[in-house]
Design goal:
Elements (H helix, E strand, L loop, with lengths): L5 H9 L5 E2 L8 E2 L14 E7 L9 E3 L2 E8 L2 E8 L4 E9 L14 E3 L2 E5 L4 E6 L5 E6 H5 L13 E3 L2 E4 L8 E5 L5 E5 L12 E3 L6 E5 L3 E6 L5 E6 L12 E3 L2 E6 L4 E8 L4 E8 L10 E3 L2 E5 L5 E5 L5 E5 L5 E6 L2 E6 L3 E6 L6 E7 L12 E3 L2 E6 L2 E6 L2
């Protein structure tokens, strides 16, 4: 039987019987919505509701069982909030200390709901498993105390990956570099030493269309390909920057893997060979890569933020820059129903046509509610776009 592609596998891994939205939907940033507006009114789409009081943070929304999950920081503590689809607060639980200091106080990692549980990773690298209905704490792990890991300079950022019974995390460190935990109990299923370096704090992806199904992790100084069944390292490739931090999730298509790194390192494209046991470099470019945004493959091109000023379109196969544009500030990007949604760091929300010839804005409006950084990635679900801006979560009707 022909093996399923990554999008199908990610859907199987991350979706339960009901509709579910995890980190960037299925990690690709593409939302399978139809009938969405092809342009917006001058003032933007209708604001259905907004919820205030989340506190500091730039974690994105996740959705399951017709509930919204989001984390926030108030009074030096991290909280998990559960809202209904009308913005009413259903439940709230304190999970403990959160990241504070000069490097942007607040919550980072998207909560992951899955089969009656919700998994939260704090900025100080603690993993919590809650019952979805009651928010009772079922178990927790501390990456430093339990696995000998070192937190990153800017606080932990990446949610775990769920594959069958396994909860995949990459705390880094000399012994438990990458781990598969039992998602029900938190017990170790397998542990890999990897390259023994620190974590890059991003989110891994699963490649199921190779002869050896594997997890691809971007650690602090190396990219790793690990056998999903036992954690055996299949390959590694050096890639780092001055902070050894890589918040962007790898992008995969047709045996090619794209990795984005900020702080001047840029993008790296690798090609998988020998059934997924080896990788070879294809192209590199300094311009592509961002600290809080993300890039995505749409059609035969890569769209997304690059350096601190430009949005880019890049040919997937060759790395050729099709355009660089600074009409609006850089930020993050998702896609749905044939169009791109670009949310800039200055609060500009733009509807953009995926055109490799130019950055073609169809409509845009300002996000005026909320506080602090415009870094949370938007989410689209059943014709509604959810935008988190610090203290406030907004719901816009886009269908």
């Amino acid at each position: 039987m022909k093996k399923l592609g990554i999008l199908t596998i990610m859907a199987c891994c991350l979706l339960s019987v009901s509709a579910q939205v995890g980190w960037r939907n299925d990690h690709t940033g593409i939302y399978n919505e139809t009938g969405l507006m092809k342009s917006w009114p001058a003032g933007g789409p209708e604001l259905l509701w907004h919820f205030d009081g989340l506190g500091f943070g730039f974690s994105s929304v996740s959705i399951d069982q017709e509930k919204l999950f989001v984390t926030g920081f108030t009074d030096a503590k991290g909280y998990l909030y559960v809202l209904d689809m009308n913005g009413k607060l259903l439940n709230k639980v304190e999970y403990g200390t959160e990241f504070t200091g000069d490097n942007f106080t607040g919550t980072r990692s998207t909560a992951i709901p899955h089969e009656g549980k919700v998994y939260v990773v704090s900025g100080i690298a603690e993993l919590f498993c809650f019952d979805m209905q009651t928010l009772k704490l079922l178990w927790k792990k501390n990456y430093a105390a339990d696995y000998g890991a070192e937190n990153t300079k800017h606080g932990w950022n990446g949610p775990p990956l769920i594959i069958g019974e396994k909860l995949i995390i990459g705390p880094g460190g000399p012994t438990h570099n990458v781990l598969a935990l039992n998602k029900e109990t938190g017990d170790i299923i397998w542990s890999s030493e990897g390259m023994k370096g620190i974590s890059g704090y991003g989110t891994p992806i699963l490649l199921d269309d190779q002869e050896v199904p594997q997890i691809v992790f971007m650690m602090g100084d190396h990219i790793l390909g690990l056998d999903v069944t036992n954690g055996k390292m299949l390959w590694s490739y050096p890639h780092t920057n001055r902070f050894s931090e890589h918040p962007n999730t790898p992008v995969y298509s047709d045996n090619m893997l794209l990795f984005m790194s900020a702080y001047g390192q840029g993008a790296l494209m690798l090609r998988l060979n020998d059934g997924g046991r080896k990788v070879l470099p294809v192209w590199e470019m300094k311009e592509l890569g961002h600290t809080t945004g993300h890039v995505m493959k749409y059609g035969n091109y890569i769209y997304g933020p690059g350096n601190r000023t430009n949005w880019y379109c890049v040919d997937w196969q060759t790395g050729k820059i099709m355009y660089a544009d600074n009409t609006i500030a850089v930020g993050n990007i998702i896609a749905a129903d044939g169009l791109l949604y670009c949310y800039s760091e200055k609060g500009e929300m733009a509807l953009v046509k995926p055109n490799p010839e130019k950055f073609e804005i169809i409509s845009q409006f300002p996000i005026t509610l909320g506080t602090e950084q415009h870094w949370a990635h938007p989410v689209i679900y059943k014709g509604v776009m959810y935008v988190r801006h610090g203290d406030t979560l907004m719901a816009y009707k886009i269908k």
